[in-house]
Design a protein that fits this description.
The structure is a single chain. By secondary structure, this protein is of the alpha/beta class. The protein has ten helices and eleven strands. The protein has helices at about 10-20, 25-30, 35-50, 65-90, 105-115, 130-140, 200-210, 225-235, 250-255, 285-295, and strands spanning about 55, 60, 100-105, 125-130, 145-150, 160-175, 190-195, 220-225, 240-245, 255-260, 265-275. Strands 3, 4, 5, 6, 9, 10 and 11 form a seven-stranded mixed beta sheet that branches.
Length: about 300
């Protein structure tokens, strides 16, 4: 390892690069030139004695050494703030909020109730609902510390782990639409459906699980962005829909909708937690992941 000392500015610049993902964006944030950023990263790599980044187009991906250095830098910043507070007698800085991006259905009906329960209800949280693609993008850009999605994604920027599973169900109005248990997609093609932003993946997973194939077409009677309107429309007799069970629990309890049960095993869909590769694992994030994971799979009989 090079015996020279690494300028503390290089560590700060390194953290900015890991958040910006490109030297050009890091240079803008640091208000220096791009060659200056490149020089600092080169000096830091010489000091550490191993590459910290790999190229992926215009982006920079952290190597294992880079991920370890990032974790060290984040711990250093937190410990320095704590030390400063102890030495000066001033309270340390307020805990940074945990920034969470989640697909809407899971976020509204599963994650939010968990966040409102002990011991998480006092945590500072910033929560946004997005499509799965935008959740991935927010985590990759460093705009979210934790993402929650229905489908995995292979990416060198992300750590993806299965969190829990939930049941996907065929929802029908409690009255007004005669429907027996379908034996194949063809039985459902003539019927109206209520569709929504993320329904492509959910519908596909349900049809593939139960029938092994997709219907030739889905007749959409209404389309909405959020699942609340979908479930309400099903209850009014507008059509059928396939939704995560948690989204319909209140309407089921009120008797406005019913679940159409099919023979065979239920369709259980995995929910994934995603974080940035190499990001410092905050205790608050692990507490949220553990609490949601302990909640487990929700089903009805």
């Amino acid at each position: 390892m090079n015996s020279g000392r690494a300028d503390i500015r290089y560590l700060h610049s390194f953290l900015v690069v890991t958040e910006s993902l490109t030297f050009a964006k890091a240079a803008e944030a640091l208000r220096v030139t791009q060659p200056a950023v490149s020089y600092r990263m080169g000096q830091l790599e010489n000091r550490i004695g191993t590459p910290l980044f790999e190229r992926a187009g215009r982006r920079r991906i952290l190597t294992p050494a880079g991920r370890e250095l990032r974790a060290f830098c984040l711990r250093y910043v937190m410990e320095l703030d704590a030390l400063s507070g102890r030495l000066t007698g001033r309270p340390g800085p307020a805990t940074e909020p945990v920034r969470i991006a989640s697909v809407s259905g899971f976020g509204r009906y599963v994650l939010f109730p968990v966040l409102c329960s002990a011991p998480l209800r006092d945590l500072p949280i910033e929560l946004v609902y997005e499509t799965a693609d935008e959740v991935f993008a927010r985590v990759e850009r460093g705009e979210a510390d934790l993402g929650l999605v229905y489908r995995p994604k292979v990416s060198s920027y992300l750590d993806v782990r299965e969190l829990c599973r939930e049941e996907l169900v065929l929802l029908a109005p409690a009255e007004g639409l005669e429907l027996t248990a379908p034996t194949g997609p063809d039985d459902l093609e003539p019927l109206p459906f209520v569709t929504y932003e993320e329904c492509g993946y959910v519908f596909g997973a349900w049809f593939e699980h139960h029938f092994g194939r997709q219907p030739a077409r889905i007749r959409s009677a209404r389309r909405f962005e959020e699942l609340e309107e979908v479930v309400a429309s099903v209850g009014l007799g507008v059509g059928l829909s396939v939704v995560p069970l948690d989204c319909a629990s209140a309407a089921l309890a009120a008797g406005r909708v019913r679940v159409v049960r099919l023979d065979g095993s239920p369709c259980l869909n995995a929910v994934y937690a995603i974080t940035r590769s190499g990001a410092f694992r905050r205790d608050e994030i692990e507490a949220i992941v553990d609490a949601v994971g302990r909640r487990g799979t929700r089903r009805i009989d």
